[in-house]
Amino acid sequence: MESRVLPDPEVVAVLSAKFVCVKVDADNPGPAEKILSQVKGNTLPFYAYVTPDGKFISGTSGYRDTAVFKSDLETALKSDLMRVPPDAEKKLAKMAEQAAKDLEAKKIPAVVKAAKDVDAVRGTSESKEKVKQLYAQAIEAGQQKIKEAADLCKDAKFDEAVALLATMAKDYKGTELEKPAGAATKAAERLRGAAKEPAAAKKMYELIVKECKDAPAFVELAQAKLKE
C-alpha cells in the first residue's frame, strides 16, 4: 500500500483535499482501538473511515489496489453520515444561488468569500461542490485576465494592462492568483518603463524573466523581446 497505492497522484489528491489521515500502530492503537475494533477482518493493513466527530463510517482489512482504494475513499465521502444537516443544506443552497449570480455579475470578491464560507462547513453537500465549481470558474477567469493584460502589453497598451491588473489584484486578494496578479502588475509596469526608456529596455526584460515567474505570459513576452 505504501509503495504502490498511497503515492499515486490521484490518491494523494483526494487524501490531501478531503481527509485527515492518521497512522496508528496496530499493536498499540491507543484511543483508536474502539474504531479499529469495528473493522471486519484480521489482515493488515486496516483502514477505518470516520466522520470529523468520530462516528464510524466503514472499514477495510487487507491490501487494496489503487482502483479499489479510490472507490473506498469516494464511498466514505458519500456516506449519509458525512452529509451536512438539512437546515445547513438550505443555507448552502442559497449561498450557491447567490454565488452564481455574483460570478455572472463579475463580483469576484463575493464568490471568493462564498467559497471560504462553505469550506468552513463540515460535511458533504452538492451546494458546497457547486460553490467550489463557481470559485474554480472565477480563478480561470482571473488567469485569462492575466493573459489579456499580456496581450494588451504586446499592443503597447500598457496603461490599460496596468489598470486591468490593479482591479484584478483587489478582486483576487487572498487567493492563489494574488501572487500571479502581483507579478503580472510588476511586469506590465516594467514593460511600460522599457517603452519609455529604450536604453533600459534590455534590463527591464531581464528583470521580468528573473522576478516575474508567477506570470508566465509576461515572462514569455519578455523573452520574445530579448530575442528581437
Polypeptide structure, described:
The protein is mainly α. The chain has 2 domains: 9-82, no CATH class; 86-227, no CATH class. It is 62% helix and 5% strand. It contains 10 helices and 2 strands. It has a two-stranded antiparallel ribbon. A hairpin with a 5-residue loop joins strand 1 (46-50) and strand 2 (56-61). The model has no long low-confidence stretch (mean pLDDT 95).
List how many beta strands DSSP finds.
Answer: 2
Overall shape: it is: elongated
- The Rg value, from CA coordinates, equals 24 Å
Classification by helices and strands = mainly alpha
Main sheet strand line-up = 1-2
Please report the distance between the alpha carbons of the first and last residues.
53 Å
Estimate the helix proportion, in percent. 55-70%
Could you describe the largest sheet, including whether it forms a barrel? 2 strands, antiparallel
Low-pLDDT runs: none
Number of domains: 2
Strand content: under 5%
How large is the count of helical segments? 10
Oligomer: single chain
Q: What's the order of the H and E elements? A: HHEEHHHHHHHH
Mean pLDDT: 95
